[in-house]
Amino acid sequence: MNGHESQNSPHRRFNPLRREWVLVSPHRAKRPWLGQVEKKPSEQMPTYDPNCYLCPRNSRAQGAKNPPYTNTFVFDNDFPALLPEAPPEAIEENGLFVARTERGICRVVCFSPRHDLTIPRMTPQEIRQVVDVWTEQYGELGSLPWIHHVQIFENRGAMMGASNPHPHCQIWATAELPNEPARELESMLNFRERNGTCLLCRYLEMELDRKARVICQNQGFAAVVPFWAVWPFETLVLSRRHLGCLTDLSNTERDQLGDLLRRLTVRYDNLFEAAFPYTMGFHQRPTDGEGHPQWHFHAHYYPPLLRSATVQKFMVGFEMLGTPQRDLTPEIAAARLKEVSDVHYAESARKR
Ligand code: H2U
Ligand code: ZN
Questions:
Q1: What are the structural domains of the chain?
Q2: In the predicted model, what is the mean pLDDT of the chain?
Q3: Range with the lowest mean pLDDT among 40-49, 198-207, 241-250, 334-343?
Q4: CB-defined site of ligand 1, < 6 Å
Q5: 346, 352 in Cβ contact below 8 A?
Q6: Among all ligands shown, which has an atom nearest to the Cα of 55?
Q7: What is the atom index within ligand 1 of the atom nearest the CA of 78?
Q8: In the structure, what pLDDT confidence band is assigned to residue 40 with cuts at 50, 70 and 90?
């Protein structure tokens, strides 16, 4: 299959991190759209919302009061999905009823006291403070002997289930390795054993060489629409250096990570001139005390939007029962993200 064919005929692409396929049907991008109607949502937001449980000085649902914080703020989730203490219990019946106790710590991180800011609208200095907090949290939670994995993730936009527009993320630190990182860990290990090199180091090298799917880059990081992307504008952020986690980053690399995330999310917002919803998260080396030298630090962005601020992709039908599928090729998605400006549309319209 040559480059031209892969833009025209149906084909399958392999995701080497998840070891599964994605179906690409480029010709279907031309079909008439009979789904939801396009409409630009208005997005005027106050800098402070008296009803927001994340704004400084406000009360949260369980009665705790936020301090008058001036940059970032971390607190234990008032409705944690996991608890640090849980009696060890297990069910094992014929390999069919299988269950185990799971322990964990859930936290919420506010990125800014400003209710209306988002990563793409924050200054490099403000984003650097967020990178520093992520790094501290990974270090602190990961060093607890019973915490074996730290998942930092951001749900942005109501479409992605975010409960609040105030810029924030969540951290779930767990005793067990979650499914996705466990799968990636094994893929990276297998690749290293077979090829004597890191899967994502090799992959990044190939993408930087081909260029077609690279959205933006700096000295420390690059963002690509992965060859095997499932979501229309899915991206993968990779460190150029082979490192495993935030605490491995140099001072300069922390700034470079912030720079890359800002530029990428500005492009996302500019794509449909709206606050682009997504779930993003870092995949870092497990904190189980094993070295895991094969692990390569990266972040996934999974945005659901397809062709406007209101038309989103759903994983239904064949995708639920068979294989995930996409119409827009990763190369066209990358071209669209590359062609938009990395100056935020709201910044170019008015000074904040
Ligand atoms: P999401 O926007 O991704 O839902 O994250 C918000 C989190 O904030 C969510 O996990 C927590 C919810 O449990 N939360 C509190 O800890 N305190 C509150 O007062 C409300 C929401
Ligand atoms: Zn707020």
A1: 14-24+42-351 (3.30.428.10)
A2: 93
A3: 40-49
A4: 53, 60-61, 77-79, 108, 155, 162-164, 170
A5: yes
A6: 2
A7: 16
A8: low
